[in-house]
Design a protein that fits this description.
Chain B: This is ABC transporter permease. The complex is a heterodimer of chains A (244) and B (411). Chain A has 244 residues and is of the alpha/beta class. In chain A, 37% of the residues lie in helices and 26% in strands. In chain A, the strands form 2 sheets. In chain A, strands 6-7-8-3-9-10 form a 6-stranded mixed beta sheet, with helices on both faces. Chain A has a 4-stranded antiparallel beta sheet with strand order 2-1-4-5. In chain B, α1 crosses α5, α6 packs antiparallel against α7 and α12 runs antiparallel to α13. Classes of the chains: A alpha/beta (244), B mainly alpha (411).
């Protein structure tokens, strides 16, 4: 379970998040949504420990970054918005590296990885270098890399960008599997229509604070939009901010 | 109001600022110290070799001509144009001529420096080993400048759209061949001939271009591609001394490297060893640094037989090889994956130390071999003392210097 309490932070000279608190329970998928610049990626960077928080605490199953960095990171797997691969490593070596870093059982993890590679049609490309992959394929590598671990929290940043419809469908299935296995999933997205298929709740960020949170129906009621027209929330938000 | 002269000044200022930023790392204290020793040793060897020349050598002219031809090929056209220019400058393309002229002048600066240096180094050899007079040699050297100017004009003409289909490599080969012929005539007939031929070729080319230049437009794709690749080469060089973020992943992979990796990984397992070994062998930059130090050090140690110079070179080169490989530790810092792995800094440092240990021991082994080959001249006591001192230096470097350097960088 991920617990974020009174988180404030941002970059050195730019305070972005102001007193953000939320939870992602075991077996729950939470969508972090908001307009560009709302603070979604910043929140994720704080959770990953890539940015130091000004104040507040972040814990995964009672372990915080400060109390035990290694144990904390052992609990997180991350799929970034932009693929971040090592140019010097093949696909096989990336997976091998993750197995070593997370100290996973090699045979068991490879058997999971092989299924994932097949699912994303990467099984014949194990000896390819990142330069040979398209952006979408690189994103699939990142998904395989994260989903083959046994991390309790999956953080997925804009997962549907650059993926083909089949890969989006497969990813949603994988999220459902993790959810069924009792793992927590936090994902940021703009594509609410796709995300709502798996997300139990949404947290709506606006200008660094939580503007609203709840299920699709709850958000639709709050913003007075039809549940099948969720994207209209963004328009409402922009109006509230005086942008339109 | 926008004008191309201001744009050029702005671009040049930016470019020079970037060069200045990185050159500080290139000409660091360590490198200057090494350069002093290497240049000193080479100058000493060159001076001794010159003393031995008492009569003209038949092979002197061909060697000098080959060196001049190689010097002629140094230096490309620096336009300092960037990708966005093909959109934002396109409407004003017709006025770009003045900008390109300034680019051409600037492009002559670095080759001019290399040509002057080559001239200064070659002069004593030419005057001792050939029958050419100083004035004729001066004429030959001046012809090199004129040919280089022509070379840059050829490169510029390739960037014009109507000329892009023509095969430049052939033209450049013609230029080099023409220059070689003129230098042959200069050496064997009369030195002034080379200069006269160079001036005539240059003037003829300018005359042909006066008709083409005003009517043709830039081949933007080519200009930007060439400039980007030129800049990339420079940044890759700087990347040997300091981490340059703009230098992406130029990776080489083959069966030999894969076999080496397999061997290495079995002997030095570890999460970060896995990464560092691959970066070292597949990124040519780091491997090149290591190989260069190994080969240059071995050659110098084979040539020099003065115990004090040998001792300094032996220890200095081991230290410098280690020092120049330190940026490899931070090579993966830009990749968030490295920071997200559940590993500790101590683990990463340990793996890097292991990698450096094997590389420095490789240097030590190569240099020690050269010392042993020169054992008779240097004295066995000196050789054995140095071999032990080299080992001690590696231990001190890895145990004390490396952790303190990394801690300093972190703070």
């Amino acid at each position: 379970m991920l617990t974020v309490e009174h988180l404030s932070g941002g970059y050195q000279h730019l305070q972005i998040l102001k007193d953000v608190s939320f939870k992602v329970n075991d077996g729950e998928v939470v969508g972090l949504i908001g307009l560009n610049g709302a603070g979604k990626s910043t929140t994720i960077k704080h959770i990953l420990g890539l940015l130091p928080a000004t104040s507040g605490t972040i814990k995964i199953d009672e372990v915080s970054l400060k109390s035990d960095l290694q144990a904390y990171r052992q609990q997180i797997a991350f799929v970034p918005e932009t693929p971040i691969l090592y140019p010097e490593l093949t696909l096989r070596e990336h997976l091998e590296m993750t197995i070593m870093a997370y100290q996973l059982d090699s045979d068991a993890t490879w058997s999971v990885a092989e299924k994932l590679l097949k699912l994303f049609r990467l099984d014949q490309m194990l000896d390819w270098f990142p330069t040979h992959f398209s952006k979408g394929m690189q994103q699939k590598v990142m998904i395989v890399n994260a989903f083959m671990t046994s991390a309790n929290l999956l953080v997925i940043d804009e997962p549907f960008t650059g993926l083909d419809p089949l890969a989006v469908h497969n990813l949603l299935d994988l999220i459902a599997t993790k959810k069924a296995a009792g793992k927590s999933v936090l994902m940021t997205t703009h594509i609410l229509a796709t995300a709502k298929a798996q997300a139990d709740r949404f947290i709506l960020l606006n200008q660094g604070t939580i503007r609203a949170s709840g299920t699709v129906t709850e958000l639709a009621t709050e913003f007075n939009v039809a549940p099948n027209q969720l994207d209209d929330i963004y328009l409402q938000m922009a109006k509230e901010n005086g942008d339109v | 109001m926008f004008d191309f002269q201001t744009l050029w000044r702005h671009r040049l200022k930016q470019h020079l600022r970037q060069q200045n930023k990185y050159l500080r790392y290139v000409f660091n204290d360590h490198l200057i110290l090494a350069a002093v020793f290497v240049v000193g040793a080479l100058a000493f060897w060159y001076s001794n070799a010159l003393q031995k020349i008492s009569q003209p050598l038949w092979w002197a002219q061909p060697i000098v001509i080959i060196i001049l031809a190689l010097v002629l090929l140094i230096g490309r056209l620096a336009t300092l144009l960037v990708k966005a220019d093909q959109i934002f400058l396109l409407p004003k393309e017709a006025q770009l001529g003045r900008y390109l002229k300034q680019a051409q002048h600037y492009s002559l600066a670095l080759p001019a420096f290399v040509m002057v240096f080559a001239g200064l180094v070659l002069t004593p050899f030419v005057l001792r080993a050939t029958t050419i007079s100083p004035w004729q040699w001066l004429g030959l050297m001046l012809s090199l400048f004129v040919f280089k100017d022509l070379d840059l004009r050829l490169l510029m003409s390739q960037l014009l759209r109507d000329q892009a289909d023509r095969q430049l490599p052939i033209k450049r080969i013609w230029l080099v061949l023409g220059a070689v012929v003129s230098w042959v005539l200069g050496f064997y007939v009369y030195g002034g001939l080379a200069l006269i031929l160079a001036i005539l070729a240059n003037l003829w080319w300018r005359w042909t271009q006066t008709k083409i230049l005003p009517t043709t437009r830039l081949n933007w794709r080519l200009v930007i591609e060439q400039e980007a690749s030129r800049q990339f080469r420079i940044l890759r060089f700087y990347n040997l001394f300091v981490d340059v973020p703009e230098v992406g992943g130029h990776v080489v992979s083959n069966r030999l490297i894969d076999r080496c990796l397999k061997w290495w990984q079995q002997r030095q397992p570890g999460t970060f060893s896995y990464l560092y070994q691959r970066a070292f062998l597949r990124r040519t930059d780091y491997l090149n640094i290591w190989l260069r130090f190994l080969v240059i050090g071995m050659v110098l140690l084979a040539l020099i037989q003065q115990p004090v110079v040998v001792a300094l070179l032996f220890l200095l080169f081991i230290y410098l090889a280690g020092y120049q490989l330190l940026p490899l530790f931070h090579h993966f810092d830009h990749n968030p994956l490295t920071q997200l792995y559940p590993t500790t800094l101590a683990e990463r440092q340990r793996d890097f130390e292991r990698l450096l240990r094997i590389l420095l021991l490789g240097q030590w082994l190569g240099y020690s071999l050269m010392l042993l080959l020169n054992g008779q001249q240097l004295g066995w006591l000196v050789v054995s003392g140095l071999i032990v001192a080299g080992l001690v230096l590696i231990i001190v470097f890895l145990r004390f210097y490396l952790p303190s350097r990394l801690a300093k960088k972190r703070s």
